[in-house]
Amino acid sequence: MSKDNKLRFDGYYVSVWTDAESFVFRNIAVKRDNYLRFYEDGEVIAATIKPLSTSELREWVVNDFSRWTKEDFLKLGRPEYYNVNDDPTHPYMITDFTLDKKSRIKFDFKWYRAGSNGFTNYEGVLVDDTIEVMIESTGGKQHKEIFKFVSLDEIKYTTRKHSDLYKNFVLHHFTSHFGGKPKIFEGDIGLEKIIPHFDMYYIPPSKLHPYYAVFTCGMGEHSMTTRHDDLKYAELCLLLPPDWKITGFSQVDSVALQPFRSLMLGGRYPFQNRIFLADGHVVIIKDSSRSVNFSSELITRFSSAFGVKNSLNSIIIDNRKINVYGVVQLFPEELNFKIAVGSDQLLNKFKDVGINPYIFAPTRENLLSGVSKTKSEIAKNKHKLHPLSLIDWHVLLDRLIEEKEPRNISAVLTRMEELFPEDYLLCFKKAILASKSRNENNSLIEQSFKDAVERNADFAHSWYLLGNLYVDRKNWDKAIWAYTNYTQLRPDDPEAWKTLSTPYVHSGLFEKGLEILQTAKGLNQNDPEISVMIKKIEVELGMI
């Protein structure tokens, strides 16, 4: 990129890093008179752009950051705030912009990470076409900024096209399932705008779907913290009764506001806590303005049993899988039940009483009102548990696992086995812990999974992970057995059928593997991975 075009931002990423005093950038406007303006909570900080030659920059980098090479330097991972004592290398990536009537190009920020050195995320960048910016803050102090321009050849597509492409895919996906025209939700729900930002849309009720569909759009542009590529991206959705007040309310309409706050808080949760959301996860609600007695949100896939096609559950955008999860509001007793016997059992209870769990209904019946009723439900599943006490123990165990305290974990596991000898979830967690241990004991892992399955054969994830264990051992017969049970519990899930095909193909049973993959394709015509897998088998069989 030539220096003459240094302000031509259209189609270019711009990464920014600083050793400034502590503050957070909200957005940026670049004016064409070579002035850069930073906005921080309404305060404007002016800056003049000055070209800096490669040799000058190299000297600055080497003198000030001697641990780096002359040819490149590192952009390190995201800080929560700019701190003067931190490594002065905090990047932003500009991802969207518009040109307003005053000829300013306005940008929103997105974090960009590439690679990892084990401690922080980084990307090496060359020093060519880099400029230095001297910024005068309102207090008269100065500090340096460095901008790096990345050409179109170095990125897949422009930021503008990426944003529009993603939004259009998401809106089309929801429209194809609920009909109607999506409208952006613009009500003030009393939550501060934070990074990452995403919008909420809603689709009005129709004869086919007599309820509002409210969903996030943009959450899936940001990667959640997980090593599983197919679980990194998600959008959330909930449904509202047709008479719900969706516009024209004020802050005093706390009940009307609640589902929108709930959806936004649930969407922010994985990014604020550096975790991920997946089927069966629970988000504990911490909202002081809440006027409804729901205590948590169950994140779960949509089911055709409640009138929503299973194909709603995922979107493929640029070979990335975006999971779509429904948000189910739970009363405390229902949460206890879910922890004790699993989300599948809880959703079956909604089905039995004819309640659509995805519809936000603050006046609906508590399925498990009262401890005695909860105990009776547990007893039906042959679980001699006391849910309230069990929850406390599981919360303690999860906290110790998060804090990596092996001795205390061992003590808590031993005590829980004494108190709750039939808790399949405890067996499941033991298996997960054993699989992550440095002294991995395969027989212990296998036995723990088998114990979990024996105590609750309807717990699908146990079958899935047990199958994974057998695949790692290349024990294809047992993998087929485990994955078959997993698929029987998720007959409408194309991912389950894809998983089941794997051991058949590896054991040379290509015809059976092809038959299973064709079933998966029938459930999800838009999954390119299924088509690739089918083509490989057809080549192997000499069909093409």
What does this structure look like?
The protein has 544 residues and is of the alpha+beta class. The protein folds into three domains: 3-154, no CATH class; 159-381, no CATH class; 457-544, Alpha Horseshoe (Serine Threonine Protein Phosphatase 5, Tetratricopeptide repeat). It has 15 helices and 18 strands. It has helices spanning 54-64, 159-178, 254-273, 332-341, 343-353, 371-380, 387-403, 406-419, 424-436, 442-455, 460-472, 476-489, 494-506, 510-523, 528-540; strands at 13-18, 27-31, 35-40, 43-51, 72-75, 92-99, 104-110, 123-126, 130-136, 142-150, 183-184, 199-203, 212-217, 233-240, 282-284, 296-300, 314-317, 320-330. An eight-stranded antiparallel β-barrel has the order 1-6-7-2-3-4-9-10. Strands 11, 12, 13, 14, 15, 16, 17 and 18 form an eight-stranded mixed beta sheet that branches.
- How many helices in DSSP terms? 15
Report the end-to-end length measured between terminal Cα atoms: 46 Å
**General form:** globular
Strand order, sheet with most strands: 1-6-7-2-3-4-9-10
How many runs of DSSP E, i.e. beta strands? 18
Q: How can the largest sheet be summarized?
A: 8 strands, antiparallel, barrel
Beta-strand percent range: 15-25%
Question: What integer is the average pLDDT?
Answer: 64
Structural class: alpha+beta
Radius of gyration, whole Å: 26 Å
- Total domains, how many? 3
Provide the low-confidence segments as ranges.
Answer: 1-162, 370-389
* Helix amount: 25-40%
Q: What oligomeric state do these chains adopt? A: single chain
